[in-house]
Amino acid sequence: MNIERGLFQFDLTDYHAILGVSLDADAKQIRKRYLKIARKLHPDSLRSSTDEEKQQANELLSKLVNPAYEKLTQEKTMTEHMVVLRLRGQQLGRQSSTLELQDETAKSLIGNNNPITAYTSSLQKLAEEQYQSLGNVLDITGQISELNLAYLVNTTDTAASTAAPTNGSKSAAAPSTASASPPAPKPKAPPSPRQQREAIIDSYLNRARQFALKRDYSRAILEMREVVKAHPTNAQCHSQLAEYYLQAGQPTMARIHLERSTAIDPDNALAKELNAKVSKATQAKAAQSNSKSSQSKSRGGLFGLFGGNQK
């Protein structure tokens, strides 16, 4: 089930196009659309269809629709996906004149002064047809992805395209080719794997920071554990996780990740800052534990004089 149009041609899976929802769709809209598609592809809705059509519907649901819904309804994967889209949109926005689009509607969207209205209207029409005929699903999904691509490029490049050169010495009646418009910017290379990785890590760090500001350290820790699992050699992530463990009153776990951070990058600033705090908290917790142990033994000895807790 390969699609080679729109955002798909840039090694991206266009989950929004698969579900036929806009790039600005919220969770409620995504769920409503998914349920509509799922009902249409369900075996109960295909009782009069051939076995081949039922198999095709099952593959569309299991290989395209369900994975797309899962990606767009999980906060982490949704955030990561939108980060990657924004990065790619910034790159493609500077190469809009070289984009290859087959759909005329998508072509007309490039440079449209009212992209939201045109995009929403065109997308709605395609979405209504998308899953009407199983044989046309991939083609229409490709058309929707071209719309998404054009919309992404248009909305990303708006600020750059609206800047017009001014020159008081030139009249509008006698424009000069050299001064009428600025030179076209050189195409930028697509975001490197490293840039994409850093953007994704930043999204985790930002979410964790928001939870920490609310003193919800358990969720901040969960966010950082996820990113550390995916990027185990990132010293800053280990240091940040150590800080949240420390704030949550778990200095032992903080020490573990602090040591990992230092092993990866001995010069990590946050690790150096936390080192003394973690040591102090670890000592305080050890002293508290020893004090409780001593009290327990003392009570045990006193009870021992009278035979303990015998029933």
Describe the model.
Helix 4 (75-92) packs across helix 7 (137-161), helix 10 packs antiparallel against helix 11 (251-264) and helix 10 (235-247) packs parallel to helix 12 (269-305). This protein has two domains: 6-160, no CATH class; 193-304, Serine Threonine Protein Phosphatase 5, Tetratricopeptide repeat (Alpha Horseshoe), CATH 1.25.40. The chain has helices spanning 15-19, 27-41, 51-73, 75-92, 104-109, 115-130, 137-161, 193-213, 217-230, 235-247, 251-264, 269-305. With 311 residues, the chain is mainly alpha-helical.
Instruction: Give the structural class.
Output: mainly alpha
Low-confidence runs of at least 5 consecutive residues: 157-181
CA-CA gap between termini: 73 Å
Mean pLDDT: 80
Largest sheet, if any? Answer: none
Strand content: under 5%
Number of domains: 2
N-to-C order of helices and strands? HHHHHHHHHHHH
Number of strands: 0
- Helix run count: 12
- Radius of gyration, in Å, reads 29 Å
Q: What helical percentage do the residues reach?
A: 55-70%
Shape: elongated
Quaternary state of the chains: single chain
